[in-house]
């Protein structure tokens, strides 16, 4: 049985449905990210798990116990906020030990647990400092220690790294993941940053307009997006305007050139307009060998970024963006130069509908 | 540039003279009790007067009680408005400002009409219950200052996130309010408290009409019957008020005011 279960949760504010039919089972110790743009309902869903919002319809269970209508202070969940939310009037040690004092644990136990937590976040000497004496990264680590001190059943993280600069964000996300693995705590992580979600999660729930678009491992989400939204939101994607020529063989026309898809158009009709999605990293200059796809076009833009050269290839109506590594012995193509690019049949994803960009 | 600076200095000098000259005059007059030389005789007489000690003590106790009741009433109200009832903020602010536009004499006649000895709630029937009524009326008088101070303090911290963080750590409302919110608006509460103290110490109308032995009626009594002592009392009242203002400044510069709260 799943450790955390969200059963057909729906949240409605007046006429506005912000979360609809959210259904998810999270295993004990799993790290699941809710990924989506602002207003997609990810934070509302997290707040329903925390108890700050009550689902209009549906149920939430933690370890088999129905917590749908329990107050946040009765749920035993730990939470980290974007704004750190450390208590300014308390020292680091007092902040970390706050939940234990609320639970009326003996003083000796509180002290030893606080020390353990401060060691865990690698700030053992900072117990006597006040939050205003710490950097943003240190404050967020203290917030993590505070959230974990009570040994919560579920750890909830609401965009905890958004307020930090890029370098600290990367080191802290590795630290959070390491701590989560070490403690084996079931974790829900809300973010709009796809890199964060892809690098940290066991599974990702991609959300849009209150709906779950797709649930899967980072590998599945990135490589096999099920909807147009997931394909466009996760990673960079070329979307080409296509027309199905032969659904059986997967033959598609893109700007009067023919390519083949290995899957995904069995349900299409011949002559039907479809969008073709293609990841930039699948594209390489030159032919890819027998059986692979190739498209001819003209180099429209070349941007030299140091280690990487970013290229835009104009077909006719559609354009393909792709990157190549800088190679001093092979200079990049020049603008206006005709070029053939290749990619394998497996790299093509045929989406429903015909919208291109 | 120079002209505007001159104007600013001129305004400051005029303002200072406007306040300081009468005060210096009062102080100077209070020292003239002994004929032909300056002395602190008037102050000695005042401090030795048992009615001064009794009335000042009475008003001090009442001021402290007013502060406690005011804090217990205003802090949870302002917190709740900030956290859950933001739409009610204009209404609550309007209500808290009413004591500034309704004269104290109107309020006290209202109290006498509603709480007289033959009413359902006969507060004025006994001395202690009248003290309680006076305390509540002072809470009302000080409401605009106390509410403004606390509300400003609450706006400076992230009340919602701090509350939610404490809730996830198992805290109930009382603990959140007294262990998390109140210490973080300490400076604001102290500002409101000292303003309340200054108001209560010199208040005359309510204490007089409710016939309580407060410092305000004592000041008036002395002013009607003595020459030098009222001046000494006025200077003492100013000193008490200034001490309160000074304490606001001292606590306002404390640790709590320097650090960013919960952001």
User: Oligomeric status of the shown chains?
Assistant: heterodimer
* Cα-atom radius of gyration of chain B: 22 Å
N/C terminus separation of chain B: 39 Å
- Please tally the β strands of chain A and state the result: 20
Largest sheet of chain B: none
Bulk shape of chain B: globular
The 3D shape of chain A can be described as elongated
Largest β sheet strand count, sense and barrel closure of chain A: 6 strands, mixed
The radius of gyration of chain A is: 25 Å
Task: Compute the number of strand runs of chain B.
Answer: 0
Low-confidence runs of at least 5 consecutive residues of chain A: none
Describe this protein's structure.
The complex is a heterodimer of chains A (357) and B (263). Chain A is of the alpha+beta class and 357 residues long. Chain A has helices at residues 42-50, 92-102, 107-120, 136-149, 166-183, 194-200, 218-223, 228-233; strands at 4-13, 16-26, 31-35, 57-62, 65-66, 77-80, 154-158, 186-191, 203-208, 211-216, 238-246, 251-254, 257-260, 273-278, 284-285, 293-304, 308-314, 319-325, 338-343, 348-351. In chain A, the strands form four sheets. Chain A has a six-stranded mixed sheet, sandwiched between helices. A five-stranded antiparallel sheet of chain A has the order 13-12-11-14-20. A five-stranded antiparallel sheet of chain A has the order 15-19-16-17-18, with no helix packed on it. Chain A is elongated. The mean pLDDT of chain A is 89. Chain B has helices spanning 2-30, 41-48, 50-83, 89-101, 104-114, 127-155, 159-168, 173-184, 186-202, 205-209, 215-225, 229-252, 255-258. The two termini of chain B are 39 Å apart. Mean pLDDT of chain B is 87; it is low at 256-263. In chain B, helix 1 crosses helix 12, helix 2 (41-48) crosses helix 12 (229-252) and helix 3 crosses helix 6. Chains A and B meet through strand 6, helix 2 and helix 4 of A and helix 7, helix 8 and helix 13 of B.
């Amino acid at each position: 049985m799943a450790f955390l279960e969200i059963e057909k949760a729906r949240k409605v504010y007046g006429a506005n449905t912000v979360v609809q039919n959210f259904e998810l089972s999270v295993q004990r110790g799993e790290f699941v990210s809710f990924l989506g743009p602002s207003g997609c309902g990810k934070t509302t869903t997290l707040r329903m798990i925390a108890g700050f919002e009550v689902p209009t319809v549906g149920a939430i269970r933690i370890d088999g116990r129905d917590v749908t209508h329990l107050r946040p202070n009765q749920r035993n969940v730990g939470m980290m906020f974007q704004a750190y939310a450390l208590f300014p009037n308390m020292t680091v040690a007092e902040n970390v030990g706050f939940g234990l004092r609320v639970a009326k644990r003996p003083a000796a136990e509180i002290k030893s647990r606080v020390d353990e937590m401060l060691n865990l976040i690698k700030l053992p000497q900072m117990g006597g400092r006040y939050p205003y004496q710490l950097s943003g990264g240190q404050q967020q680590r203290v917030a993590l220690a505070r959230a974990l001190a009570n040994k919560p059943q579920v750890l909830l993280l609401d965009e905890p790294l958004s307020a930090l600069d890029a370098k600290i964000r990367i080191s802290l996300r590795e630290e959070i993941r390491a701590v989560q693995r070490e403690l084996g705590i079931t974790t829900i992580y809300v973010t709009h940053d796809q890199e964060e979600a892809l690098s940290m999660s066991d599974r990702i729930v991609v959300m849009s307009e209150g709906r779950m678009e797709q649930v899967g491992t980072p590998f599945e989400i990135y490589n096999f997006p099920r909807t147009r939204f997931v394909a466009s939101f996760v990673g960079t994607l070329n979307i080409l305007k296509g027309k199905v020529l032969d659904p059986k063989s997967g033959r598609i026309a893109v700007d009067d050139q023919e390519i083949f898809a290995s899957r995904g158009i069995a349900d299409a009709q011949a002559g039907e307009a479809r969008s073709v999605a293609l990841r930039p990293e699948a594209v390489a200059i030159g032919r890819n060998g027998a059986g692979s796809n190739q498209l001819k076009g003209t180099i429209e833009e070349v941007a030299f970024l140091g280690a990487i050269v970013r290229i835009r290839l104009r077909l006719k109506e559609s354009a393909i963006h792709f990157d190549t590594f800088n190679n001093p012995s092979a200079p990049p193509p020049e603008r206006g130069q005709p070029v053939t690019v290749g990619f394998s049949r497996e790299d093509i994803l045929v989406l429903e509908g015909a919208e291109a960009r | 540039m120079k002209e505007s600076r001159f104007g600013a200095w001129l305004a400051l000098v005029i303002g200072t003279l406007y306040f300081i000259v009468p005060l210096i005059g009062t102080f100077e007059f209070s020292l003239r009790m002994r004929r032909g030389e300056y002395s602190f005789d008037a102050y000695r007489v005042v401090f030795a007067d048992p009615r001064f000690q009794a009335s000042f003590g009475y008003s001090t106790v009442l001021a402290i009680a007013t502060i406690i009741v005011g804090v217990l009433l205003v802090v949870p109200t302002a917190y709740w408005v900030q956290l859950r009832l933001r739409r009610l903020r204009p209404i609550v602010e309007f209500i808290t400002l009413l004591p500034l536009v309704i004269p104290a004499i109107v309020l006290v006649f209202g109290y006498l009409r509603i709480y007289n000895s033959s009413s359902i709630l006969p507060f004025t029937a006994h001395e202690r219950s009248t003290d309680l009524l006076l305390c509540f009326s002072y809470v009302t008088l000080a409401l605009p200052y106390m509410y403004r101070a606390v509300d400003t303090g609450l706006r400076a911290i992230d009340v919602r996130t701090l509350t939610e963080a404490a809730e996830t750590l198992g805290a109930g409302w009382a603990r959140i309010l007294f262990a998390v919110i109140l210490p973080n608006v300490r400076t604001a509460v102290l500002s409101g408290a000292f303003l309340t103290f200054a108001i209560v110490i010199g208040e005359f109308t309510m204490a007089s009409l409710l016939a309580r032995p407060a410092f305000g009626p004592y000041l008036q009594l002395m002013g009607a019957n003595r020459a030098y002592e009222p001046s000494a009392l006025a200077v003492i009242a100013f000193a008490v008020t200034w001490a309160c203002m000074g304490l606001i400044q001292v606590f306002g510069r404390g640790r709590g005011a320097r650090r960013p709260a919960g952001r």
